[in-house]
C-alpha cells in the first residue's frame, strides 16, 4: 500500500521541487532561527538582594574631569553622592554605556569609548553590572531585565536630586547584552517618571534568549524617544527583527568581512564589529552613509541600490532622526571601514567586488 502511495505521489513531489527556482533555496533549507532562540526558564522571576544591589554601580567621568580626577563608582544606594560628583557638568550631554557578557567598565571597550566621548565634550557614565553578567549565558539573560530595571531606578532617583540632571540630555549606548539591558532601564525609567529617555543605541543587541520575545521582553522602539540599532551578526549572536526607529544592516547584517578578507569573520568577529564601527563613526561622523531598503530581506541580499527614491542616513552621532526604517550600510573590510558615498553605488559593493577581483581571470591556469 505504501509503495503504491509513493509511486503516485513521487512524480508530483519531483515536479514541485523542480519547479522551485534554484536561486532561492529557502524553500529547501528553511530559515535561520539564530543562536539560542529559546531559553526555557528565562522569564522566571529574579530577586536581587540588598547586598547584590550594592554591586550595581555607575562609574562617573564628568566633562570637568582631569587626569588627576578620581573616577569614582557609585552604587544603587549612593545616588545623592553621585549627583554631586565634582566632575559632572549637567549642562553638557551625558553618555551611559553598558557593555556585554563578562565585561566591566575597567576593561578596554569601556575605556576606549570613555576617551572618545570625553573628546567630544560628554560626561561619561560606565555601568558596572559585572556581578550579573558572569554566569552561564541563559542565567545572565534572565538577570538582564532586573538589572536594567534597577539602573532605571537609579536614573529616576537622580532626577529627584535637583542638580540639573536632564534625561533628555542622556544618551544610552549598549553593546550586545548591554543593548538589551538599556531597554529595560528605559522601560523602568518611563514607568517611574512618565517620561521617555532621549536616545538608545544598541550595537548588535544580543538575540540569544530574546529574539522570539515581544516588545515588553526585549529592545523596542517604544522604549525611548529615539532607538537606533546596528546589526552585524543578526542570525548568530544578534537579532534580525528591526526593533528600532532606524535599523542599520551592515553589509547585509549577517556576517562581516574579515580584516584579512579571505578569512572568515564568524560569530564573535561579526558581532563585535558593531563596536568598532561605532568607535570609527565617532571620529568620522559623516563617513558611514547608508541607503534605505524596503525589507530586511532586501538588506540581506544587498539589493537596495535601485530603490527609488534614494533615501540615505548616517551611522553615528549625525544620524537623521526623522528618517526611520531599514538601512543597508556597506563598509570596507578594514579600519576605519567607512566608504562615504561610494557605499551607495553597486559598482563599489564590497563583498562581490572583492570576490570578482580575486577571480578576475577569464581562464585560470594552474
TrEMBL record:
Location in the cell: Secreted
Keywords assigned by UniProt, alphabetized: Secreted, Signal
BP-aspect Gene Ontology terms: lipid catabolic process
Taxonomic superkingdom: Eukaryota
GO cellular component: extracellular space
UniProt domain Lipase: residue ranges: 79-337
NADP is among the record's keywords: no
GO molecular function: lipase activity
Signal peptide range in chain numbering: 1-19
Family matches, as Pfam families: Lipase (PF00151)
Gene3D superfamilies: alpha/beta hydrolase
Family: Belongs to the AB hydrolase superfamily. Lipase family.
Name under which the protein is recorded: Pancreatic lipase-related protein 2-like
Gene transcribed to yield this protein: LOC113521485
Amino acid at each position: 500500500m505504501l509503495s503504491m502511495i509513493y509511486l503516485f505521489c513521487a512524480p508530483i513531489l519531483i515536479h514541485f521541487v523542480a519547479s522551485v527556482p534554484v536561486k532561492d533555496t529557502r524553500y529547501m533549507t528553511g530559515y535561520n532561527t539564530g543562536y539560542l532562540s529559546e531559553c526555557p526558564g528565562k522569564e522566571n522571576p529574579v530577586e536581587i538582594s540588598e547586598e547584590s544591589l550594592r554591586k550595581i554601580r555607575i562609574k562617573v567621568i564628568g566633562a570637568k574631569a582631569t587626569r588627576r580626577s578620581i573616577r569614582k563608582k557609585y552604587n544603587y544606594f549612593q545616588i545623592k553622592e553621585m549627583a554631586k560628583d565634582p566632575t559632572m557638568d549637567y549642562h553638557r550631554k551625558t553618555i551611559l554605556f553598558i557593555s556585554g557578557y563578562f565585561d566591566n567598565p575597567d576593561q578596554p571597550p569601556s575605556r576606549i569609548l570613555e576617551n572618545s566621548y570625553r573628546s567630544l565634550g560628554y560626561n561619561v557614565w560606565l555601568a558596572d553590572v559585572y556581578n550579573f553578567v558572569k554566569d552561564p549565558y541563559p542565567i545572565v539573560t534572565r538577570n538582564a531585565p532586573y538589572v536594567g530595571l534597577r539602573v532605571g531606578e537609579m536614573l529616576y532617583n537622580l532626577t529627584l536630586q535637583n542638580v540639573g540632571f536632564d534625561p533628555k540630555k542622556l544618551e544610552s549606548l549598549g553593546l550586545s547584552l548591554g543593548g538589551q539591558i538599556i531597554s529595560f532601564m528605559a522601560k523602568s525609567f518611563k514607568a517611574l517618571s512618565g517620561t521617555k529617555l532621549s536616545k538608545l543605541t544598541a550595537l548588535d543587541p544580543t538575540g540569544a534568549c530574546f529574539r522570539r520575545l515581544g516588545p515588553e521582553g526585549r529592545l523596542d522602539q517604544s522604549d525611548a524617544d529615539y532607538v537606533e540599532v546596528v546589526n552585524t551578526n543578526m542570525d548568530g549572536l544578534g537579532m534580525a527583527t528591526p526593533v528600532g526607529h532606524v535599523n542599520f544592516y551592515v553589509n547585509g547584517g549577517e556576517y562581516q568581512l574579515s580584516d584579512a578578507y579571505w578569512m572568515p569573520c564568524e560569530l564573535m568577529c561579526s558581532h563585535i564589529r558593531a563596536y568598532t564601527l561605532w568607535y570609527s563613526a565617532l571620529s568620522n561622523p559623516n563617513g558611514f552613509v547608508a541607503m534605505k531598503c524596503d525589507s530586511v530581506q532586501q538588506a540581506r541580499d544587498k539589493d537596495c541600490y535601485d530603490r527609488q527614491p534614494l533615501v540615505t542616513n548616517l551611522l553615528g552621532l549625525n544620524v537623521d532622526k526623522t528618517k526611520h526604517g531599514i538601512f543597508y550600510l556597506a563598509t570596507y573590510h578594514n579600519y576605519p571601514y567607512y566608504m562615504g558615498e561610494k557605499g551607495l553605488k553597486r559598482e563599489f559593493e564590497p563583498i562581490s567586488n572583492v570576490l570578482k577581483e580575486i577571480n578576475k581571470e577569464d581562464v585560470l591556469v594552474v
